[in-house]
């Protein structure tokens, strides 16, 4: 299905509202500055790579699916 300009604008507005709400929570219920809201919008509310925001792979190593895939490739399951 083709999605046009109206849809993209709707999604942007929706996400900007979400970024505002998240920023408000981070700033103790007070209205956050537009700069903070813009930062959260641009980074999808994950502005850093700490253990709460960042990709879990950097802390926990490869995911279960990646480990399974590596196992299958190393043992050549297709040849059995
Ligand atoms: Zn963080």
Compose a concise summary of this entry:
The chain is mainly α and 80 residues long. The protein contains four helices and no strands.
Structure description:
The longest helix is centred in the N-terminal third of the chain and has 22 residues, at 5-26. The protein has helices at 5-26, 34-42, 57-60, 64-75. The model has no long low-confidence stretch (mean pLDDT 89). The protein folds into 2 domains: 1-47, no CATH class; 52-80, no CATH class. The protein is mainly alpha-helical and 80 residues long. It contains 4 helices and no strands. Helix 1 crosses helix 2. The protein binds zinc ion. Zinc ion is lined by residues 48, 50, 52-53. Residues 48, 50, 52-53 line the site of zinc ion.
Strand content: under 5%
Number of domains: 2
Task: Characterize the main sheet.
Answer: none
H-E string: HHHH
Q: State the helix count.
A: 4
Mean model confidence by pLDDT: 89
- For the termini, the CA-CA separation is 42 Å
- The portion of residues assigned to helices is 55-70%
Structural class: mainly alpha
β-strand number: 0
Morphology call: flat
The molecules bound to the chains, other than polymers, are:
zinc ion
* CA radius of gyration: 20 Å
Low-confidence stretches: none
Itemize the secondary structure elements and their pairings.
Layout: H1 5-26, H2 34-42, H3 57-60, H4 64-75
Helix pairs in contact: 1-2
The structure holds zinc ion.
């Amino acid at each position: 299905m083709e999605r046009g300009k109206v849809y993209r604008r709707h999604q942007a507005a929706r996400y900007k509202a979400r970024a505002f709400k998240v920023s408000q929570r981070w700033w103790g219920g007070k209205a956050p500055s537009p700069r903070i809201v813009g930062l959260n919008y641009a980074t999808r509310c994950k502005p850093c790579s700490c253990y709460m925001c960042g990709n879990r792979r950097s802390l926990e190593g490869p995911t279960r699916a990646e480990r399974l895939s590596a196992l299958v490739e190393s043992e050549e399951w297709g040849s059995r």
